[in-house]
Design a protein that fits this description.
The two termini are about 20 Å apart. Helices cover about 75% and strands about 0% of the residues. By secondary structure, it is mainly alpha-helical.
Length: about 325
């Protein structure tokens, strides 16, 4: 009974903390956004010589930009709790939520795939490098990892586009579908989309493998020096059991933290990749909204970023428990 009570109290505290952090993120983002030079009305009227100050004042009143900034935030937040993100101030004036939801699957799918591939490839690289510290295989992986760090993502993307796309025509270099996409069968459409995503996923994965494998190597080296690892070896346990049963679980905890912090980058980190490969994702949408000073669309993207940030922290807490059952999620750290 006491354990159930403690669990409920912890869940309530966690929920309250998440709500406060979310409000703080939106509050700071809203005020910082208005500090940037320019406004939606400036972007819409600056190139029209017939527009006067009276017309700009009417537009400001129409969009509610003539109110004090705290009133603008309160109006926006009261709509947000009703899941009303407002309408875009630039372009077609469509609902912000509709524009985000239609681009969300591509961005999330692209980045989650890259994250999983990086994790699957980085784990064996980091483990082998740590276990064979100073040997040829460790030096070989170290060179590859530093090459991954040194290669700028945009440069690698342009290089692959030129070599695999333009010169040899192996892979498409832009867009998400081919011109004859509507003529293909369901299976053909799936293969066509996957064909277009190979280069973006490859470019996104290279940098992630380098960072994750180096982080895991350092963590594994620290764990392998601990007394309980030496004790496990002295008891006669096999090398495989010592590494994968005892050392890896504790070495994964910092990596889980790194992965949890990388979840919010699903939006921000996609801007360059989506711009280079002309992918209609959230990163490209967010960049266009910033350039147009489209306040509702900017805040809509930032809200999704805040949700991903908090979700990444919760996911990391859950993964801590899976990696090490001794960790109790009902105790405050």
């Amino acid at each position: 009974m006491h354990s159930l009570y403690m669990s409920v109290c912890h869940a309530a505290k966690k929920l309250l903390w998440i709500m406060l952090v979310f409000i703080g993120i939106t509050l700071i983002s809203f005020f910082v956004m208005h500090l940037a030079p320019g406004s939606p009305t400036d972007m819409q009227t600056s190139l029209n010589p017939l527009v006067n100050e009276a017309y700009r004042a009417k537009l400001n009143a129409l969009y509610g930009l003539d109110k004090p900034i705290y009133e603008q935030y309160w109006d926006w937040f009261t709509r947000l709790v009703r899941f009303d993100f407002g309408n875009s101030l630039a372009g077609d004036g469509r609902p912000v939520l509709d524009k985000i939801l239609e681009r969300l699957p591509l961005t999330v799918g692209l980045n989650v795939t890259s994250l999983l591939l990086a994790l699957v490839l980085a784990l064996p690289v980091g483990i082998v490098s740590a276990v064979n510290q100073g040997k040829f295989i460790d030096k070989f992986f170290t060179v590859l990892v530093f090459l991954g760090f040194a290669l700028p993502g945009f440069w690698l993307a342009l290089l692959l586009m030129m070599y695999l796309g333009i010169e040899h025509g192996i892979l498409p270099i832009s867009g998400i579908t081919s011109l004859n996409f509507h003529e293909l069968s369901l299976w053909g459409k799936c293969l066509d989309v996957l064909h277009h995503l190979i280069l973006p996923v490859l470019v996104s994965t290279v940098g992630a493998i380098a960072g994750t494998s180096r982080f895991l190597r350092s963590s594994m080296l620290e764990v392998l020096r601990q007394d309980y690892i030496l004790t496990a070896k002295a008891k006669g346990l096999s090398k495989r059991r010592v590494i994968y049963r005892h050392a890896l679980r504790n070495a994964l905890l910092p990596v889980i933290t790194l992965l949890g912090l990388s979840v919010p980058g699903l939006i921000g980190g996609s801007v360059i990749i989506e711009s280079i490969f002309a992918l209609p994702g959230l990163g490209q949408l967010f960049y266009g909204a910033v350039m147009a000073r489209d306040y509702p669309l900017i805040m809509g993207n930032l809200v999704f970023g805040a949700v991903l940030t908090l979700a990444g922290n919760l996911l990391a807490d859950f993964c801590y428990k899976l990696a090490d059952p001794r960790i109790s999620l009902t105790k405050d750290s």
